[in-house]
Amino acid sequence: MASTSTLSLPKMGCGTWAWGNRLLWQYDPTMDRDLQKVFNLCVSNGITLFDTGDSYGTGKFNGQSEKLLGQFAQGCIAANIDSLCIATKLAPYPWRLTRNAMVQAGESSAQRLQRPIDLVQMHWSTANYAPWQEWALLDGLADLYEQGKAKAVGLSNYGPKRLQKVVKHLHNRGISVLTLQVQYSLLSTAPVTQLNLKAVCDDLGIQLIAYSPLALGLLTGKYTESGPLPQGLRKGLFQELLPQVKPVLECLHAIAKFHHKTSSQVALNWCMAKGTMPIPGAKNPRQAQENIGALGWSLTPGEVDELDRAAAGLKKGMVKNIFQTG
């Protein structure tokens, strides 16, 4: 019988991709004080899962997200800190070929975090290009769990077919998969509507985590075709997508107005209504407070259906992650 984790998962987590990423999110160390406030604010409000990865952080800031989380956790005295769950993803880089390479990667992450890993995850599957590589790395994840260097095991970017094979492989070692995270939002519904991942996860006892639940900021309502757009790589993407996704943005805005909420809060609440745990990012306390406002209330079934219809009617949504498997 596979072992089950004692980790407690909140209704919503916090993604930390931006904490060290200059390429997409224009990270600068002057942001660190705000990021610490984000951490404390989230923990105090029950958002106790922080998702990171050993590949988060660009250039000289490689590993910065994990380092910051380690620093913030050490100094945090907020309520709920005992429930803190730091989930990190280990990348199956081409040079990581053995199970020991994954164990070493996990040990390096733990050093940056200054604590054992709560939830260790495979960042993506190699099934689309090097399926043979994956099994040794998955055994490395299992080794980290068995050696007490991680409290639970999770996956990222897996589709139902590959997921079931991996779950069986780990089950044979007596290990359960606690979570699966995929790109999921009103502009990325395919994992649930086409791949049926939520039902598969429910059958397997796996919590589905929704990353990029605000579609890189498109669903916040902050951006319009005529208004200023974010700098960097997102600008071109937003210019292309904003005219296409207008029906969803209008629907979000109408429902948000009725509830005296923001579009972001409605988009996140929709993810939770679907039984997923969204992990929106936040770079400052204002964004964190807005995310927190998605908790403590619920969309009606009719409003969820209305948003579903708006999303289903789109001809084009967010770009699919190339590592997502079938």
Characterization of the model:
The chain has helices at residues 32-44, 64-75, 99-113, 131-146, 160-171, 190-193, 197-204, 233-241, 246-259, 263-273, 285-292, 301-312; strands at residues 14-15, 49-53, 85-90, 117-122, 150-156, 177-183, 207-211, 277-278. The chain has 326 residues and is α/β, with parallel strands linked by helices. An eight-stranded parallel sheet has the order 1-2-3-4-5-6-7-8. The radius of gyration is 19 Å and the shape is globular. The two termini are 27 Å apart. 47% of the residues are buried.
The average pLDDT is: 93
Separation of termini? Answer: 27 Å
Content of β-strand: 5-15%
What is the number of helices?
12
What is the SS-derived class? alpha/beta
Poorly predicted runs of 5 or more residues: none
Give the neighbour order of strands across the main sheet. 1-2-3-4-5-6-7-8
- Helical residues, percent: 40-55%
Radius of gyration from the alpha-carbon trace, in angstroms:
19 Å
Q: Which outline best applies? A: globular
What string gives the helices and strands in order? EHEHEHEHEHEHHEHHHEHH
